[in-house]
Structures are given as structure tokens and as C-alpha cells.
Automatic annotation (TrEMBL):
Gene3D superfamilies: Tetracycline Repressor, domain 2 (1.10.357.10)
Keywords recorded for this protein, A-Z: DNA-binding
Protein's recorded name: TetR/AcrR family transcriptional regulator
Membrane-spanning ranges: none
Residue ranges constituting the HTH tetR-type domain according to the UniProt record: 1-58
Statement: the UniProt record of this protein carries the keyword Isomerase: no
UniProt-listed PROSITE patterns: HTH_TETR_2
Biased composition (Pro residues): 207-217
Lineage: Bacteria, Pseudomonadati, Pseudomonadota, Betaproteobacteria, Rhodocyclales
């Protein structure tokens, strides 16, 4: 069973749901096609199982992150970095793209993303509330909207590579470019919620020269 799931994960990540073949999955797993169909009634059911396993792992790790001991800025930065980290794995990023398309048109019996989302929302509310109380963050921020926007800003580059390559020349399939995007995206999200914006997190590429303010006329 584990060999089938692992082989299917590689096949779906490489070819997508439409082009993946049960014959190839069975061959890679070292089993017969009949055995695959013994456990899974269809290719779609196997794909849904692979998605659920990946979602359960990534969301489980995300909601398990300990943040209460960190200062609000550090806690938010840690949470955002953990949101991005799975997408730096090319296989998970490819599965995420397929999963988004699949979930838009299919209902699945289990969905760990939906099941664990309330805990993730609770974590974000707690971090923002502590930041507002300490004076680090603005108080007039809707935590659920902020979480959704932060998730899109930080991870969308990994599922919309063409757009990012075209607009800013970064290919997140490259480790250095992925790290540049990660740092910029996290600083961008922090800038949106900080009560007093400073030069602490400049929204520049790491190798960009400092900007010299124009001289007064």
C-alpha cells in the first residue's frame, strides 16, 4: 500500500492527473495493476488519497508549530515561513497545482486542509491579537482575511510560476530564486500588518543597492 502511494505521488507530480497512468504506477511500485485496483477503484480515487496524505502531513506540521513563546513579529514570520516551506519541494508544489484544480470540481470524503483550517485560523488570530496588544501590529486587521491573503501572497508563486517568471524574472524552481521570493513575500506580509512601518524589513531584493533619498529642491 505504501509503495503504491509513493509511486502514485511521483507519477501524479510528474504528469498530472490527466496524463498519469495506473500501469506506470503499478510498475514503479513493483505490483500488478490488479492490486492497485484492489485498493483503489479508480485513478481519481488514488489521486484523492495522495492529495489527502500530502495535505494531512503539511497541515499537521503547520498547525503543530509552537508560536506562543515567540514575540509577535517573530511568531508571524515563523508561521509564514512554515506556510511556504512545503512548496519549496518541487513534488509537493506540483501536487498542489493539481490539487487546486481537482478540489474546485470534486468533493472528497476527507480533506485535512478543511479539517485543520480552524486551528490554523486560531493561531493567526492569537499572533495578531498579541501583536496588537504589544503595539507591534495594527489593531484593525481582520484575521481570517489576513490569513487568506498571506497564504496567497506567500505560496502563489509556487503554483503560478509562469506569472512570476514573466513579471519579475524569478523561477521558484531554482532554490536561490525560491529563497528570494520567500524572504520578499514574508516581509511584504509583515509590512501590511506592522503598526509603524520602518526600514527593518525593506521590500527589496537581497542584492539590491540601498536607495538614496532625493535631495530637497
Amino acid at each position: 500500500m505504501r509503495r503504491i502511494s509513493a509511486a502514485a505521488r511521483r507519477e501524479f507530480a510528474a504528469k498530472g492527473l490527466a496524463d498519469a497512468r495506473i500501469d506506470d504506477i503499478a510498475h514503479a511500485a513493483g505490483v500488478t495493476k490488479q492490486l492497485v485496483y484492489h485498493y483503489f477503484r479508480s485513478k481519481e480515487e488514488l489521486f484523492a488519497c495522495v492529495l489527502e496524505d500530502s495535505s494531512a502531513t503539511t497541515m499537521g506540521e503547520l498547525v503543530a508549530v509552537e508560536l506562543d513563546h515567540l514575540a509577535p513579529r517573530d511568531a508571524l514570520r515563523a508561521l509564514l515561513n512554515h506556510m511556504i516551506r512545503p512548496y519549496c519541494d518541487p513534488m509537493l508544489s506540483a501536487l498542489a497545482q493539481e490539487g487546486i484544480r481537482y478540489h474546485e470540481s470534486h468533493a472528497t470524503p476527507r480533506n485535512s486542509f478543511v479539517d485543520l483550517a480552524p486551528e490554523l485560523k486560531r493561531k493567526m488570530r492569537s499572533v495578531l491579537a498579541r501583536g496588537a496588544q504589544s503595539g507591534d501590529f495594527r489593531a484593525n486587521v481582520d484575521p481570517d482575511l489576513f490569513l487568506a491573503a498571506a497564504a496567497q501572497v506567500t505560496t502563489s508563486a509556487f503554483v503560478s510560476r509562469y506569472t512570476v517568471v514573466t513579471l519579475c524574472g524569478l523561477d521558484v524552481a531554482n532554490a536561490d530564486d525560491a529563497d528570494t521570493w520567500r524572504r520578499f513575500a514574508v516581509d511584504f506580509v509583515l509590512a501590511a500588518v506592522e503598526r509603524e512601518r520602518s526600514d527593518q524589513h525593506p521590500l527589496m531584493r537581497p542584492d539590491a543597492p540601498p536607495k538614496t533619498p532625493p535631495e530637497a529642491a
